[in-house]
């Protein structure tokens, strides 16, 4: 008689899970799943209120769990879930930054006072330009799926910068990217360019994911493991072919640089930043940048530090390309959102200078720069969403002429944020650039730092041009008006401006926190 | 045909032989066969049935949803089968049972959403 007996199994050892360490991520993921159910079962009229309450509670709850854990987290950090997640000091710094930025972005997303019904389309399936499309533009509803999607993206970002092996990193990359692709296409106005940006981002993003995955496969072939620490060990003492190692590294880095909108891999950035609903642009520009650079820092430091001699020169070229492209092409832009997109490409180059200085100062400097840049850019996009005319946001630079005469408060706030991006002293941008560049010099990258200084001087020109335009030009007669924002947007912009100011005046505590520890693996 | 590059010489030779073989065979065929085309003969051959419509036919976008739901169930099954063979074996126990239902719960969230949004009805 044939008995279908399963073959005897060796007992598996269940993974050790430090629930308290990963609780913030679990809260966000759980709330996102509940958000999907809210979308399915709560009536349309009360959905917005339910989703906003749920999302805000989730981020605040995750923040509380985070604070409780940080106060007595181990100095050296820990790895959990079969060493796939590393909750160490840099990861915790990035988590804190992401949660705070995510809260700000969520406030911008939830705002319904600036545009009646919110910045999001009521029904995404309607074809742009049709009668139904004009009707939905005037209606008050919105696709409240945005809220669970935001939570999914945010938790993906948090996993991404704590991922200790490449496979986990890839899953996190998809969890953070797929919601963003969708949200880009949900703008209430200018549906066509919004959908265009979504398709563009999706196609190019899928392409970049393929690069990442192929690089992962080559590295697995090289090291026999997807864990960053194992790859580092293999690279330190292995007779295997270097072609696999550097081929894999190159492809992996292309995927990462794409997400961080660095240098020659930036082509999607201006179009997507321009077409997306402005709150989503703020979310992408602030949070995706933080997460992507968190991943880049970990991969470069943990996985490839021992071979840095071979690849560093190539990444120098990438950093220079990014700074030059951002600064020079930023000069020629006439649309404020595209200008900020090129500014973010230039900033990615500056950040890469810090990431290439493979030393503690470089790590803490880059983390601090991410914190400052995130809040500044969040507030800047928040301010952009307020300048409107009858066609929605007035993003053409000529429409911003003389804005200081119509609305001095907004003009001053925006000027302050632009000065922070340019790196003027007494703003957080100055301290950020200072720590990153001095880390670069300490690591013997003086030529790169000189190029970075020149690029930031060029970039300062286009920031100052907007300030001159706002303060010293005459307003156009049919110019845009500045909407008085409701509580949510005011809170988000205030948060960004305050952090920019405080980190410019007393940066010590954040710098100390950024420098308390290194990666665990 | 010796040495490192000699090995590639063999590959190049194979490419040349292949190209010559195809060219000679097709040319000989053309020279020997009678050519009497009719409209019927020039039609695209599609397993004996007359082809209908152009090559750029539109497909119905709603099929996409069914593909998507199929993937959800397929992923379900891919994990359920290996799990079913071991969950009662010694050393696995209650935790294994519970974990699978947690996993199914997450997938059920997606299916519930699809159902409430009217994806499962055709009309």
Summarize the structure.
Chain B: It is an enzyme of class 7 (translocase). Chain A is mainly α and 521 residues long.
Structure description:
The complex is a heterodimer of chains A (521) and B (123). By secondary structure, chain A is mainly α. Chain A has one domain (19-514). Helices cover 71% and strands 2% of the residues of chain A. Chain A is built from 20 helices and 5 strands. In chain A, β3 (387-389) and β4 form a beta hairpin. Chain B is mostly helical. Classes of the chains: A mainly alpha (521), B mainly alpha (123). Chain A binds chain B through residues 6, 8-12, 14, 33, 36-37, 39-41, and chain B through 85-86, 89-92, 95, 106, 109-110, 112-113, 115-117. Chain B: Keywords: Membrane, NAD, Quinone, Transmembrane, Transmembrane helix, Transport. Chain B: InterPro entries: NADH_UbQ/plastoQ_OxRdtase_su3, NDAH_ubi_oxred_su3_sf.
Our estimate of the beta-strand percent of chain A is: under 5%
- H/E element order of chain B: HHHH
Beta-strand percentage of chain B? under 5%
Total strands of chain A: 5
Task: Estimate the mean pLDDT confidence of chain A.
Answer: 91
Domains of chain A (count): 1
Largest sheet of chain B: none
Shape of chain A: globular
Largest sheet of chain A: 3 strands, antiparallel
Protein name (chain A): NADH-quinone oxidoreductase subunit N
Membrane topology (chain A): Multi-pass membrane protein
InterPro entries (chain A): NADH-Q_OxRdtase_suN/2, ND/Mrp_TM
Pfam families (chain A): Proton_antipo_M
């Amino acid at each position: 008689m044939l008995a279908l007996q399963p073959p005897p199994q060796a007992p598996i050892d269940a993974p050790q899970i430090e629930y308290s360490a990963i609780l913030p991520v679990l809260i966000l993921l759980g709330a996102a799943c509940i958000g999907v159910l809210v979308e399915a079962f709560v009536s349309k009229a009360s959905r917005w209120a339910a989703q906003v309450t749920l999302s805000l509670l989730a981020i605040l709850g995750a923040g509380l769990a985070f604070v409780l854990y940080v106060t007595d987290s181990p100095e050296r950090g820990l790895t959990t879930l079969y060493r796939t997640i590393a909750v160490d000091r840099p990861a915790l710094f990035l988590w804190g930054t992401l949660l705070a930025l995510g809260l700000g972005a969520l406030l911008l997303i939830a705002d319904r006072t600036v545009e009646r019904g919110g910045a999001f389309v009521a029904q995404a399936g309607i074809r742009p330009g049709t009668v139904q499309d004009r009707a939905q533009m005037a209606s008050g509803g919105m696709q409240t799926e945005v809220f669970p999607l935001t939570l999914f993206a945010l938790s993906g970002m948090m996993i991404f910068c704590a991922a200790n092996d490449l496979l986990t990193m890839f899953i996190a990359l998809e969890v953070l990217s797929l919601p963003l692709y969708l949200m880009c296409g949900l703008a209430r106005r200018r549906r066509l360019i919004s959908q265009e940006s979504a398709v563009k981002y999706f196609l190019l993003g899928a392409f970049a994911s393929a690069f990442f995955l192929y690089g992962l496969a080559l590295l697995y072939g090289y090291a026999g493991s997807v864990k960053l620490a194992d790859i580092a060990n293999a690279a330190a003492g292995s007779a295997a072919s270097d072609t696999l190692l550097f081929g894999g590294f190159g492809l992996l880095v292309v995927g990462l640089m794409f997400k961080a909108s660095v240098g020659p891999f930036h082509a999607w950035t201006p179009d997507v930043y321009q077409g997306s609903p402005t709150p989503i642009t703020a979310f992408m520009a602030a949070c995706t940048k933080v997460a992507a650079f968190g991943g880049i820092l970990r991969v470069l430091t943990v996985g490839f530090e021992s071979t840095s001699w071979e690849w560093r020169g190539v990444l120098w070229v990438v950093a220079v390309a990014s700074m030059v492209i951002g600064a020079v092409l930023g000069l020629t832009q006439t649309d404020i959102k595209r200008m900020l997109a090129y500014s973010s490409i230039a900033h990615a180059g500056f950040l890469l200078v810090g990431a290439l200085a493979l030393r503690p100062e470089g790590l803490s400097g880059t983390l601090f720069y991410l914190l400052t840049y995130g809040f500044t850019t969040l507030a800047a996009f928040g301010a952009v969403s307020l300048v409107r005319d009858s066609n929605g946001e007035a993003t053409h630079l000529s429409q911003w002429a003389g804005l200081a005469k119509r609305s001095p408060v907004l003009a001053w706030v925006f000027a302050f944020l632009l000065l922070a991006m340019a790196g003027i002293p007494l703003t957080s941008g100055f301290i950020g650039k200072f720590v990153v560049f001095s880390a670069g010099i300490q690591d013997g990258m003086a030529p790169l730092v000189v190029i970075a200084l020149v690029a930031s001087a060029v970039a300062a020109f286009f920031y100052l041009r907007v300030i001159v335009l706002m303060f010293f030009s005459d307003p156009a007669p049919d110019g845009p008006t500045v909407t008085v924002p409701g509580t949510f947007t005011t809170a988000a912009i205030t948060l960004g401006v305050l952090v920019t100011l405080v980190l410019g005046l007393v940066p010590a505590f954040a710098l100390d926190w950024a420098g308390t520890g290194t990666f665990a693996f | 045909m010796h040495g490192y590059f000699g090995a590639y010489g063999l590959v190049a030779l194979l490419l040349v032989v292949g190209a010559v073989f195809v060219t000679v065979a097709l040319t000989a065929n053309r020279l020997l066969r009678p050519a009497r085309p009719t409209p019927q003969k020039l039609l695209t051959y599609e397993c004996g049935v007359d082809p209908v419509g152009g090559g750029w036919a539109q497909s119905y976008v709603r099929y996409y949803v069914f593909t998507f739901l199929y993937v959800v169930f397929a992923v379900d099954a891919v994990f359920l089968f290996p799990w079913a063979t071991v969950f009662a074996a010694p050393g696995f126990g209650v935790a294994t049972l519970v974990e699978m239902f947690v996993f199914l719960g997450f997938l059920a969230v997606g299916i519930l959403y699809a159902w409430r949004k009217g994806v499962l009805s055709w009309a």
